[in-house]
Design goal:
302 residues; alpha+beta; Methyltransferase, Cobalt-precorrin-4 Transmethylase, Domain 2; Immunoglobulin-like; 2 domains; five-stranded antiparallel beta sheet; four-stranded mixed beta sheet; 6 helices; elongated; Schlafen_AlbA_2_dom; ATP-binding; Schlafen_AlbA_2_dom_sf; nucleotide-binding; ATP binding
Length: 302
């Protein structure tokens, strides 16, 4: 619901939609009334504390200029943009947080073009340079609706963020065809891709595809002689296809991990498509990524 805050051309209509829909604060979203901005040191520390907490956690948005009631956006609380400028906010973030947080973006919204009625949306990324310390020599994180001081072990864990990998399942490329000798047999070719969205090279990963319609499958085979391919029986109704890592996957890289071809009888196809699913489980050093797809959508997505 708050994905639209990633836009660079935010408008007052976007802000009003938060209020109209009663959007609630979370670990990724914080509302601040105009009184949260002040030039005394205590308020400046609060700004640094809140921004660093998001960067040390999972990123998110702080919106200065919205009042909250019971943690829900309730009404606009405009800021005088002449007194509290975008540059003033940037300076606090840059000088009161160490190490500096890269790619923080402040988007000003002027109500009816009036700088004296401003709203600031601060977009804070997940930081790979964490942990970030504020000018009070403390480290903070997001917890529920607030920024709280981190425990010592949590700070130590953050130092490992830059060395942790994070993979996600990226795409299934499909191709539908028929057996040349017998057009009653339907074949589907599926190519699976994974992406490294972390900051380190991953060498140890495995993709498992669970098929819950084993009795209807008469053919399943890798498209070519893939050394990382395995097909096994899970239980009376389910079989699985898996591909394990053969090459490292670098940060930002999308890698095709494997392709297999599955065959079913054409006259049974509609029965299968009414319930059949593929469960995708991607395992890697620091976690897993799980998705589920209706086979019907894959068969008709050529």
């Amino acid at each position: 619901m708050i994905d639209f805050l990633d836009k660079d051309n935010l408008t007052i209509d976007d802000i009003n939609s938060l209020i109209e829909n009663g959007i609630e604060e979370s670990v990724h979203l914080d509302f601040k009334a105009s009184g949260s901005l002040s030039k005394n040191d205590k308020k400046k520390l609060e700004i640094a504390k809140d921004v660093s907490a998001f960067a040390n956690s999972d990123g998110g948005y702080i919106i200065y200029g919205i009042e909250e009631e019971n943690h829900k956006a309730s009404k606009i609380s405009p800021i005088d943009g002449n007194e509290f400028t975008k540059e003033w906010l940037e300076q606090i973030i840059q000088t009161r947080i160490q190490r500096k947080i890269e790619s923080v973006k402040i988007i000003p919204i002027r109500i009816n073009g009036n700088i004296k009625e401003s709203i600031y949306v601060i977009r804070i990324p997940v930081s790979i340079l964490c942990p970030h310390m504020t000018s009070d020599k403390r480290f903070y994180k997001r917890y529920n609706f607030e920024s709280v001081q981190m425990e010592e072990y949590e700070i130590r864990d953050l130092y490992n963020r830059t060395s942790n990998t994070k993979l996600e399942f990226d795409n299934i490329i499909t191709k539908l065809g028929f057996q040349i000798e017998d057009e009653e047999d339907v074949f589907k070719e599926m190519t699976f891709q994974v992406k490294n969205i972390g900051n380190a090279i991953e060498t140890n990963y495995k993709l498992i595809i669970y098929l819950n319609f084993r009795d209807y499958i008469f053919h399943i085979d890798p498209l070519s002689k893939q050394k990382n391919f395995n097909h096994s029986i899970v239980d009376t109704e389910t079989s699985s296809v898996s591909f394990h890592s053969l090459t490292p996957i670098f940060p930002g890289e999308v890698l095709t991990i494997g392709t297999f071809k599955i065959g079913v009888s054409k006259h049974k196809l509609q029965d299968i498509l009414s319930y059949a699913k593929l469960k995708i489980q991607l395992l890697y050093s620091n976690g897993e990524d799980i998705h589920e797809f209706d086979l019907k959508n894959l068969f008709y997505n050529n």
